[in-house]
Amino acid sequence: MGAWSKVRRMFTRDANIVTAEDLLNLAREGRLGGKNVHVTNATALRHSGVWAALRLRADLVSMMPIDVYRKVQGLQVEVPKPPVLVSPGGSEVGIKEWMYSTEFDLDRAGNCFGIITERSGVIGPDGRGLPGRIDLVELGEVTVRANGSQIKKFRIGQTEYDPWDIWHEKQYTVAGLPLGLSPVAYAAWTIGESLSAQEFAREWFGAGIVPSGTLKNVNKTIDKKAAREAKEAFRASVSNGDVFVHGADWEYKPLQAVAQQAQFIEARQYGLGDIARFFGVPSDLIDAAVSGSSVTYANISQRNLQFLIMNLGPAIGRREDAFSRRLVSNPRYVKLNTDSLLRMDPAARAQTIKTRIDSRTLAPSEARAFDDLPPFTEDQLAEFDRLFGSRSVPAQPTTAVPGATP
Predict the structure, then answer these.
(1) pLDDT tens digits, residue range 96-115?
(2) Cβ distance 58 to 100 under 8 Å?
(3) ∠ CA(109), CA(50), CA(175), 5° rounding?
């Protein structure tokens, strides 16, 4: 039976119980990257490439400010954020930590879960108060009871919850399935290969996978008793760094792992590139070997823009949609501020601001507001006149426009 048939079969029977790890278990045959390597959402984190990719995405998303807006006469106006978008886990867990944890789970398992433990007085689309606090739970503790694409019950530990009491985000979705898919399941072959390479290296260099060398009598054939005595004598001599003295009949030849070492290094390099693709990050951002690429970037802003558009942008958009639907009341909506990722170097930023002022799309007072500075006073403008002979800064309004960006 094919993998997709098994997936769909899971959710076609009424009240079927499916754990968050079941979609990973579908690839069980592919999870065995080697004789002793078993790839799961937990063991995959032992691979440096998996950890680097997940950390990078979660770090960046967690540092993006979250803003709430509504449309007023066609203009986007910022409004106060509800408490759940300031400290979603109460006083113990702030929004940055909460966003890091949820993004990490979404990227490695395709799902994240939390228990809605408090509600606000604002009524949501389901007729209940909007979530006021969401306590995140560990993926392995979650089981779902589903009928087709509809989740009927969540079980966390020994307690059952109705869907409206649970915060559930998902990504890597397929039509008709109630859970997101785990990229670890599909990356299991690649991760398993690399973990096998690490396992091999540990055993090889620990002299546990093959003999470290051969001691051969070139003049005669010896029996097991004589071989054991020769081995013990040799080991006793060389184990403390001493020399082994023998006649013309014994020859010691250490085994070399040149070919195996080369294959190990190659497997590690190719593993990083594959994992970068599975987890949606450019290879060079997790220090993976990159060859044959002709893509160049004029500055760091262009590099970050490419990463935002091609890799992070879709995930950010889905999260904005989930927050807008479930955490704020209509017509308010949530946006993640990506400016923190697109910060320019000082020279490029100054040139951009100057261009906008010269083209009259930005007032000088608005530009000063970017640096939390008040508009120029008349005395400051007069100082420019004394230095440059004429007023070099155009007339300006006295207040900055909220939310303006260069």
Answers:
(1) 999 999 999 999 888 999 99
(2) yes
(3) 30
**Residues of the chain under the 50 pLDDT cut:** 4, 7, 10-16, 18, 20-21, 23-35, 204-205, 207-212, 255-259, 392-393, 397-406
Of the candidates 160, 183, 273, 255, which has an alpha carbon nearest to the alpha carbon of residue 215? Answer: 255
- In whole angstroms, what is the distance from residue 307 CA to residue 313 CA? 8
pLDDT of residue 241: 56
d(CA 44, CA 40): 6
Tell me how far apart the terminal alpha carbons of the chain are, to the nearest angstrom.
56
CA–CA separation, 22 and 400 (whole Å) = 54
Contacts of 338 (CB under 8 A, 6+ apart): 64, 308, 316
The rounded distance, in Å, linking the Cα atoms of 323 and 104 is 17
Whether this prediction's pTM lies above 0.85 is answered by no
Q: Quote the CA–CA distance of 25 and 28 in Å, as a whole number.
A: 5
Contacts of 405 (CB under 8 A, 6+ apart): 339, 370
Cβ–Cβ under 8 Å, residues 280 and 311: yes
Contacts of 279 (CB under 8 A, 6+ apart): 50, 53, 54, 57, 107, 108, 183, 187
Q: In whole numbers, what is the pLDDT of the chain averaged over residues? A: 76
Structure tokens that stand for 106 in this block: 């979404």
| pLDDT on residue 401 | 44
What is the three-class DSSP state of 280?
coil
For residue 228 the two structure tokens come to: 């054991």
CA distances from 7 to 109, 145, 246 (A): 15, 14, 66
DSSP 14: T
CA-based max dimension of the chain = 105
Distances (CA, A) of 61 to 95, 101, 247, 320, 367: 11, 10, 69, 11, 26
Cα separation, 22 vs 6, whole angstroms: 10
